[in-house]
Amino acid sequence: MVQHEHPDSARVPTGSPVRTCIGCRERALAVDLLRVVVSESGPQGHVLAPDPRRRLPGRGAWLHPVEACLSLAERRRAFGRALRVSGSVDTSEVDHWVRAGHPPRAVPLEQNRHKHS
């Protein structure tokens, strides 16, 4: 079996969920990325919404909450592929969220988990 060494930038701490940014394609901890979902679909296309609490239903795409990654994702048309939707996507809500400088998470991931008794 051949083992490949990953560069230090590709290594992330274990034990925490790791996701890939659809813009820059770098792996990062989920708490450092913004989850994006399709909020509504219509004849004009799909409207995307930021999901900082990670609770909205549906398939999610992960993105660093910076303009550079958002631009790359839009240019590469990565939202449609990641969310498995065809047609146009409206990223205006996500763009507004990123430009406003919101943190990627509104609630720590540990508090986001359901407690079962």
Automatic annotation (TrEMBL):
Gene3D superfamilies: YlxR-like. It holds the Pfam family YlxR. InterPro entries: YlxR (IPR037465), YlxR-like_sf (IPR035931), YlxR_dom (IPR007393). Residues 19-87 form the YlxR domain. This is YlxR family protein. It comes from Rhodococcus jostii.
